[in-house]
Amino acid sequence: MKKLISLIVVSAVCLAGLFAVDFGDFPKGTWKDANWDANWEFGVDSLKLKDSNTNKVIFDFAGKMDNFKLTPSAKGLTVSFDCKETQRSYKFTKPATLDTSIEMEIDPEWTSSKYKVTMPIQVK
């Protein structure tokens, strides 16, 4: 019985790891998209879109990111992923400069127009 319980616990931990993302060295914090009064909040393994006025969660990306990639390059560090629920592809780049801003690019599935913005970090 103890072996069965141990096997179940180990399986649950492994399955949880399959759905978790790791933002690695990508900066943690909150960046504001002033065009939409939206804050993008990066945690250790989480990403949330919040209303910048009320701090209410608009969308939590936990468990909803497909094709997640963390890519270092000469330009900086980029996080990219697709989200079926929002029908968009996302790309966030922290340039390899002393500037604390993040560049965001959103590519909706239903149009060829991409949304691009540079977002400043929000200091609490």
Q: What would you say about this model in short?
A:
The strands form two sheets. Strands 5-6-7-8-9 form a five-stranded antiparallel sheet, with no helix packed on it. Strands 1-2-3-4 form a four-stranded antiparallel sheet, with no helix packed on it. The protein starts with a helix and ends in a 5-residue tail after the last strand.
Describe this structure in words.
15% of the residues lie in helices and 44% in strands. The chain has one helix at 2-19, and strands spanning 29-33, 38-42, 47-51, 57-60, 66-73, 76-83, 88-95, 102-108, 115-119. Strand 5 (66-73) and strand 6 form a beta hairpin. The relative contact order is 0.16. Residues 1-19 have low confidence and may be disordered.
Tally of alpha and pi helices: 1
Radius of gyration: 17 Å
- Strand proportion: 35-45%
Say how many strands there are. 9
Helix content: 10-25%
Low-pLDDT residue spans: 1-19
Give the mean pLDDT. 85
Structural class: mainly beta
- Secondary-structure element string: HEEEEEEEEE
Largest sheet: 5 strands, antiparallel
Gross morphology: globular
Query: In order across it, which strands form the biggest sheet?
Result: 5-6-7-8-9
- CA(first)-CA(last) distance: 50 Å
Furnish the topology, listing elements before pairings.
Layout: H1 2-19, E1 29-33, E2 38-42, E3 47-51, E4 57-60, E5 66-73, E6 76-83, E7 88-95, E8 102-108, E9 115-119
Antiparallel strand pairs: 1-2, 2-3, 3-4, 5-6, 6-7, 7-8, 8-9
